[in-house]
Fold:
Amino acid sequence: MMKEQVRVFLEFPVSQKMYECVLPCSASFRECMKLLRPLLSGEIGSSYRIDEETCIYEKEHLCRCDMDVPLGSLKAEDGMTFLML
Structure:
């Protein structure tokens, strides 16, 4: 059975870049963010705010990052994909 996917849009206001991240989650958005959090913190040192009010529709969420993150720094885990929009 295929896992449900959640799309998270990562917005970087500083560089005006946006990435789409697909997470292989069947759980809630907060559970999915636990997968994403290590990719956006630690060595990258980015802080971000989760904006659950900006859902485009169900299973799509916007995450605003206060610092820019180079695409090369985003190491996708198994089942994750990143796409620069």
The mean pLDDT is 63.
